[in-house]
Amino acid sequence: MVRGETAVALALFALLALTPGAIDGYPIYILPQYLLFGVLAMSLGLLWGWGAIVSFGQAAFFAIGAYGMGLAMQAGLGAWGGYAGIVCGALAGGLLAAVAGYFLFSAGVKSTYFVLITLALSIIVEQLAVSQSEITGGYNGLFVDRMVVPLGPFGELPLSGDIASYYAVLVVVPLLYFALVALTRSSFGKILVGIRENEDRMTALGYNVSFYKTAAFTLSGALAGLAGALYATHAGFVSPSLAGVTFSTEVVVWVAIGGRLSLLGALAGGVLVSALSNYLSSISPQYWQLALGFIFILVIMFSRDGLAGAVAALARRLTGRRGAARSADASDGEARHG
Amino acid sequence: MAELLRTEGLTKRFRGLTANANIDFRIEAGTVRCVIGPNGAGKTTFLSMLSGHQPPSAGRIFYDGRDITALPVIARARIGIGRKFQTPTVFDNLTVHENIELSVLRVEPDRIARARKIEQVLEAVRLGDQRSVLAVELSHGQRQWLEVGLLLGNESRLLLLDEPTAGMTSEETAATGHLISRLAGELGLTIIIIEHDINFIRALRSPVTVLHLGKVLMEGSFDEVASNPTVRAVYLGTAT
After folding, report:
1. Spatial CA neighbour of A46 closest among A229, A265, A199, A333
2. I want to staple B172 with a disulfide (CB 3.0 to 4.6 A). Which of A309, B61, B104, B141 is the partner?
3. For B68-100, how does the pLDDT look when each residue is reduced to its tens digit (9 = 90+)?
4. pLDDT bucket at B237, cuts 50 / 70 / 90
5. Which residues of A fall within a CB distance of 8 Å from B89?
6. Which residues pair with A268 in a beta bridge?
7. Residues 6+ apart with CB under 8 A from B118
8. Domain locations in chain B?
9. pLDDT grade for A76, boundaries at 50, 70 and 90
10. Are the beta carbons of B20 and B11 closer than 8 angstroms?
11. Cα gap B21→A155, rounded to integer Å
């Protein structure tokens, strides 16, 4: 958590809320999708930054959530299909993560092996999406309608328009962000930090480390599934490549560039890097990944903690509070990890 | 006095090497015991079997009247067995306050009671003024205290201290002695200490168990042990 991050986050969300007044067209259409990629990035940021768990399987949860939304929308639930899709997406992502996490963490699988197994998870989900074509549409993918938001006595709000869709996502994303920030400051977040810092010590203090890791992974999977569900209804189309190795790796790159020790950094990384990828691939279909690779290396060379780490270091220098991290009240626990 | 911990025939073999052989050990609640012996006597192995970090090859461990031989580390921690390792094992990149908080968190869900308990522990281990300092920046002696603080924070009843005064100044060593006496005397904690510092052991005035080649060589008061010719010979390396 970077000091002053909340204020920066509020300012950025306010800026996003004002954006449709200044510009319209393609950016307003595409920004919500980038923001949902940002949520996907936060789902990894929570794991990586707080639990030191690197997962290359976030795309698998995202894709499962997306397919969940697609299938729920086709289930004939009318206006409630969207809500059902969100719930299905989050549950499916969470359930897959819970099952995988339970077996991996209780068996003590760590670091490199965990990366490899979660990578395999993405491949499995991608292959299932291809092979189960009666359900998923195989390579042809699945078309998904924009959801309708039932508002009880106030009627229904269809999200078919880009502005309505934009604001719906802009309500959800800050809510998720602040909920995650609260989580990282809770006892659960502190215990995750303890596990990140010294797993053996936590065990010797009587903490069930694999339980907490599994819980964090489940939550992360549910969040990625939720982002996937919203993405599906916004983008209107789901295909197997959403679960692929390439996309899974991209999520890790977003978080590394944005800054794994800051949720806002991860969110911004997801938005900015996916926007940049989109732009680069439109000007150079062959070399955009190479260019992105160079940017990745440059950022990590100059700031191991990504853009959020660089911004926090700069802010400390400007305000002349280099030692602020240390003299800050320890109980609020937010200063050092920037 | 009530017995808190007992071992029967505790044995640990590493392939050909017998690190602990048939150790019968017993300690009463609220008392302090020093375990001494030359390098390779099997002291740390013994402690590791008590804390659950090493499974015994044979023998049994009873804690509070219950057979805990098969319990894993986490379960032993939850019934009050806390271990301070030879190299201080704390949360290096967290502050002193955050370290203690992580320990108290498991046993004290209430926020206000937790804050109070953290303060008590900080005071007990004399780290109140260092609360905002990262653990990695503490002196070696302070890191030892911090780790003892972690054991106090989660309400351990049996403290297993592996070389608690290593790297301490003589002033810090004396303070550690006072702390240990107070923990046993006032809080009724039971403490097993592995130590090399003879002056520290003498000042503690607690019974001493001497290990040699994985076996209990003798038990007794410091004076008895120190005047025993076999023990002296062992330390000089002439005994067989």
Report:
1. A265
2. B141
3. 999 999 999 999 999 999 988 999 999 999 999
4. low
5. 198, 200-201, 204
6. none
7. B97, B100, B101, B104, B153
8. 81-156
9. confident
10. yes
11. 79
Tokens of B160: 């297993």
Residue located via tokens 């990890």: A337
Rounded Cα distance, A144 and A157, in Å: 17
This complex has an ipTM of: 0.91
Residue pair B188/B159 in contact by the 8 Å Cβ criterion: no
Cross-chain residue pair B77–A206, CB shorter than 8 Å? yes
pTM check: above 0.95: no
Q: How far is B135 from chain A (nearest CA, A)?
A: 11
Region A301-330: mean pLDDT is 71
Q: What is the mean pLDDT of chain A?
A: 89
- Closest residue by Cα to residue A249 from A1, A59, A20: A59
Chain A nearest CA to B73, separation (Å): 6
- Average pLDDT (B115-134) is 95
B2 Cα to chain A: minimum distance (Å): 25
CA dihedral angle for residue B133, residue B137, residue B139, residue B142, rounded to 10 degrees: 40
**Within 13 Å of residue B119, how many CA atoms lie on the same side as its CB?**
6
CB B194 within 8 Å of CB B3: no
Is A200 part of the contact surface with chain B (CB cutoff 8 Å)?
Answer: yes
- Please, what sign has the CA dihedral across residues B151, B156, B160, B164? positive
Between residues 171 and 190 of chain A, which touch chain B (CB distance below 8 Å)? 187, 190
Percent of chain A clearing pLDDT 90 (strictly above): 60
A155-214: per-residue pLDDT in tens? 888 888 888 999 999 999 999 999 999 999 999 999 999 999 999 999 999 999 999 999
Distance CA B217, CA A141 (A): 76
Q: B106 to chain A: which residues are within 8 Å by CB?
A: 205-207
Q: Which domains, from first to last, does chain A contain?
A: 5-332 (1.10.3470)
